[in-house]
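Incident log, support desk, overnight shift.

02:14 A customer reports that sequence design results differ from what the structure should imply. Their input is reproduced verbatim below. On-call engineer (initials T.W.) acknowledged and began investigating.
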């Protein structure tokens, strides 16, 4: 496919699907095609890495358990070469460890197997919408005390050094900081940061991300006080914002 063609059909979105189990791969492929997406479906990590090098994908759906290089390896390679395409991980049931590693490696979201197709579709749409919004946003930094959150470079700089963040973690901070000292609900975060239409969707993804983000912010002076928990409501940004 030529780049021109990819661009002209961008409205439907391009999905890179990496799943070694043929029935799941073929089922998902059909699903996305029927929804007007373009799909490249592959069964192993190395081919996925080669294919994604050309760019042009709006979302990568990445199974973790793959032959050869696994999904976490693919994800790590993608991010290390500066590819910030939204990645949705497919995780095995009960593999909490993989989820944490995946988010740490820069995954935007995960869906545990077995999943419902509507659920998966909603997640993918959300990721695409959010990515399109990000593309339109101007360059930005947020000053918090002696630290600076660089939303383009995905990093927090402070006198103690640099803390690398994922694109999702930056989006969370940006959203919370814009509503500083006010409680922000998980449902609101799912709609506004994840791009889901329905914030009542059952998922732990917000809490898992928040846990990771807080762990990283501990390396920033005062960073452990930036994000507070509001019982029964969600989260609140309490960092000392500078004008
Ligand atoms: Ca698999």
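02:41 Re-run completed on a clean worker. Output:
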């Amino acid at each position: 496919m030529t780049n021109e063609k990819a661009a002209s059909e961008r409205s439907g979105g391009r999905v890179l699907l990496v799943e070694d189990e043929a029935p799941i791969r073929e089922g998902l492929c059909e699903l996305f095609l029927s929804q007007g997406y373009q799909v490249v479906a592959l069964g192993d990590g190395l081919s996925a890495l080669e294919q994604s090098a050309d760019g042009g994908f709006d979302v990568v759906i990445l199974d973790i358990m793959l032959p050869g290089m696994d999904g976490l390896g693919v994800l790590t390679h993608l991010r290390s070469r500066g590819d910030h395409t939204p990645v949705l991980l497919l995780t095995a049931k009960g593999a909490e460890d993989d989820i944490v590693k995946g988010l740490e490696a820069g995954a935007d979201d995960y869906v545990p197997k077995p999943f419902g197709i509507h659920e998966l579709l909603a997640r993918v749409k959300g990721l695409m919408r959010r990515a399109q919004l990000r593309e339109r946003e101007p360059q930005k930094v947020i000053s918090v005390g002696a630290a600076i959150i660089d939303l383009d470079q995905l990093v927090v700089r402070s006198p103690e050094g640099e803390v690398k963040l994922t694109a999702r973690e930056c989006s969370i901070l940006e959203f919370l900081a814009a509503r500083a000292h006010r409680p922000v609900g998980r449902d609101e975060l799912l709609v506004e940061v994840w791009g889901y239409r329905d914030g009542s969707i059952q998922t732990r993804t917000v809490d898992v991300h928040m846990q990771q983000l807080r762990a990283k912010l501990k390396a920033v002076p005062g960073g452990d006080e930036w994000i507070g928990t509001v019982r029964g409501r969600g989260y609140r940004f309490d960092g000392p914002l500078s004008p």
